[in-house]
């Protein structure tokens, strides 16, 4: 869901190439696949692909969990925040 939301925001606000990184290998495979999925995540994958296709170019790359500290800090922040937040042109203090 977070990757889909990230691609959605990028498609709305950003007009450059986007590189999406995740430590979830199955998500990388799902988003890189050009074949239709037959899982309950099909609609999320389809939306993510559609958002990505609105960008000039995008890719999804695997990253090691220990290299993905910013994502884990943001996930922790999201769990402890009652409102939605988007940081444009800067990042939250927890990942600076």
Automatic annotation (TrEMBL):
Superkingdom of the organism of origin: Eukaryota
Domain RNase H type-1: 2-76
Example of a GO MF term: RNA-DNA hybrid ribonuclease activity
Pfam families named in the record: RVT_3 (PF13456)
Name the UniProt record assigns to this protein: RNase H type-1 domain-containing protein
Organism of derivation: Dichanthelium oligosanthes
